[in-house]
């Protein structure tokens, strides 16, 4: 009976099914044929950080008045005595004139002295030796000036504290360091970077106890919790160094490797910092910290400024090699950048504008370099299937569009040609790094007559591109400008790539 009942229940007219079910057309899963990411890839905050490119370091504090580089931590608060009201707005406008897009202000160095009235220690500006010092809340003034002038900003806070009796103990991280970071994050949720020095222990004052205290930085500073707490307040703030979201390039001389990958293994100490690691699984781009002056990081009596030409070379060897450049410009005891610093920075801005077309603030006596790629006829060996990847994307000025090849292609050529010879000195290329860093090897050639070809800069490693690569076509950054090459054509040949090559921008100056 059960079987018969079941059979009876199945005798439903087929017309009933036809009325119940409908055919729904399926859309392709990737209708635009967007290339798959080549892992690892950066977080949004790391992309925004990379786009800052060139920014300032302002070392200012207790050491400005003691003449030291690393204070011991036993300095009386009254020694900090600015001779005039510190003027972070002057710092900001001076470096903006050099083509910088932001800066990091040192507000706590290893001596533990804080340039704001923190609740975590009495070793702060409330005990300063001048009224200017006591009333100038440096991080507040600095953040306000940066926002006023459209500049990105952030703060350097030393994890090592040679003044604090808590340092080396559990209470330091929870009661001092994390709270100081939170206080600084509160000065603005639009901060782009928080800077943590790698010096992590040694001898110090330590609340009068003295001695030497050493820590395991990877564990002691509770980095995952630190990142989470700062990002809750300032979600686009990259935590440099101890924070693990950008790496030290490995020197303080203003250069990165010609080959420079934005990847390493997490907090790796074995990697060649100037070069990164093609096999690294962690997105960890390089930042080069360098001094614009000839002495220390802090201001010193009688110091001199590096020439604009030398600073331009440093720019080519950092920003032009897939790194960022943070250039130190120390304020003096009056709380301003000295005149010779301001003048040389303005010369640098003019060079960047006239040689590389960089838009620079407050320039009225300079002509921007011409981007000859915009007037070139561009031919490519292959264009990725679809409507979004045309060669015209290379010169449209939109960082979110790009040219690319099909998935199975690892080699390609891009040829630029002009009706009349053009004098060329620099080639600039950018990859859309949101999809990962790809290009492993390329070469550059030019043709003076439109037929025969000659390789340019053969002694220069033309391997990685990344966020930005600037190639001096004469192969030299120390003879940075040169006579140039009269070219009817310029050809870039991508010889190898980790995945199908993509380029978002190409410029020729």
Structure description:
With 509 residues, the chain is of the alpha/beta class. It has two domains: 44-356, TIM Barrel, CATH 3.20.20; 372-508, Jelly Rolls. The protein contains twelve helices and 22 strands. It has helices spanning 2-10, 14-20, 44-52, 63-66, 88-96, 131-135, 138-148, 170-185, 217-220, 223-233, 308-318, 339-356; strands spanning 54-58, 102-108, 152-157, 193-196, 201-203, 212-214, 238-241, 247-248, 263-264, 282-283, 286-291, 323-328, 377-380, 403-404, 412-424, 426-430, 439-447, 454-455, 469-472, 485-497, 502-503, 505-508. The protein has an eight-stranded parallel β-sheet with strand order 7-4-3-2-1-12-11-8, with helices on both faces. The chain has a five-stranded antiparallel β-sheet with strand order 13-15-20-17-18, with no helix packed on it. Helix 11 (308-318) links the parallel strand 11 (286-291) and strand 12. The chain starts with a helix and ends with a strand. Residues 1-12 have low confidence and may be disordered.
Comma- or semicolon-separated keywords:
single chain; 509 residues; alpha/beta; TIM Barrel; Jelly Rolls; 8-stranded parallel β-sheet; 5-stranded antiparallel β-sheet; 12 helices; 21% strand; disordered N terminus
Helix proportion: 10-25%
State which percent range the strand residues make up.
Answer: 15-25%
CATH class of the largest domain: Alpha Beta
Query: What is the molecular shape?
Result: globular
Based on the coordinates given, report the CATH architecture of the largest domain: Alpha-Beta Barrel
Mean pLDDT: 94
Number of strands: 22
Total individual domains: 2
Question: What integer value in Å does the Rg equal?
Answer: 28 Å
Q: Tell me the strand order in the biggest sheet.
A: 7-4-3-2-1-12-11-8
The largest sheet, given as strand count, sense and whether it forms a barrel, is: 8 strands, parallel
- How many helical elements? 12
What would you call the structural class? Answer: alpha/beta
The CATH topology of the largest domain: TIM Barrel
Distance between the termini: 90 Å
Q: Catalogue the unreliable spans.
A: 1-12
The CATH superfamily label of the largest domain reads Glycosidases
